[in-house]
Design the sequence.
């Protein structure tokens, strides 16, 4: 059950990032009022360790908000599904 | 428009016949078939596993097809992409485009593949003698998509 008193987004990790982070996703509390993809990534990076490594500036990372490709400036609100993944390699 | 993501193999001939069936406006069908190679970056590949992002994948493919239909004078497009574990020679992806004349169908098929390679949420992991490794995205794919 999601605690409706806390603003959270559903993070989804895919492919190499899922393996590196050791999980397919997590509920992330917007504790510091993160309002954009860029702020969310910065908060994840601040955890240090593998998050800092994999999400380091300059590493190619893609983000989708509610299944649509997003950029650092894309707004996020409570309840959004935010997926973080490496550049795609299908086809 | 038809978009399918599936683990099962597909038959190119069957799919193309079904795609164009009964439509006498069509004068050209261009298809692209992508298949698994047994070597990549100087290593032997024994299996290729494709992961995707359920929920987004179909939506992304439909968006790419809608984009193609807006840009090119085509009747319809079909995209089938497989997921799961595949072996060398297996088909991975099929794109088919129908139009009155070949030019628009060739261009739209090329566009669809270039966009799919950079915008559809699939990832390849290959098994090599040195272990499993994720396939890295190529800058040349971004360059190809940027041409359009």
Sequence:
């Amino acid at each position: 059950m999601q605690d409706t008193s806390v603003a959270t987004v559903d993070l989804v990790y895919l492919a190499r990032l899922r393996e590196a982070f050791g999980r397919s996703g997590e509920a992330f509390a917007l504790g510091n009022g993160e309002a954009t993809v860029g702020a969310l990534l910065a908060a994840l990076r601040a955890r240090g360790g593998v998050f800092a490594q994999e999400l380091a500036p300059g590493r190619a990372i893609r983000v989708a908000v509610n299944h649509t490709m997003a950029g650092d400036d894309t707004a996020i609100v409570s309840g959004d599904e935010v997926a973080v993944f490496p550049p795609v390699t299908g086809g | 428009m038809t978009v399918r993501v599936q683990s099962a193999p597909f038959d190119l001939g069957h799919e193309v016949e079904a795609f164009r069936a009964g439509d006498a406006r069509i004068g050209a069908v261009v298809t692209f078939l992508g298949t698994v190679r047994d070597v990549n970056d100087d290593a032997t590949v024994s299996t290729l596993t494709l992961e995707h992002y359920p929920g987004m994948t179909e939506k992304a493919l439909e968006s790419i097809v809608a984009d193609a239909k807006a840009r090119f004078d085509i009747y319809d497009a079909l995209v089938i992409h497989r997921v799961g574990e595949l072996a060398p020679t297996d088909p991975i992806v099929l794109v088919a485009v129908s139009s009155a004349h070949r030019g628009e169908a060739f261009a739209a098929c090329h566009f669809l593949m270039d966009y799919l390679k950079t915008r559809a949420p699939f990832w390849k992991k290959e098994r090599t003698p040195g272990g499993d490794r994720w396939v890295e995205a190529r800058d040349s794919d971004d360059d190809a998509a940027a041409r359009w």
About this structure: Residues 102-119 of chain B form the longest helix (18 residues).
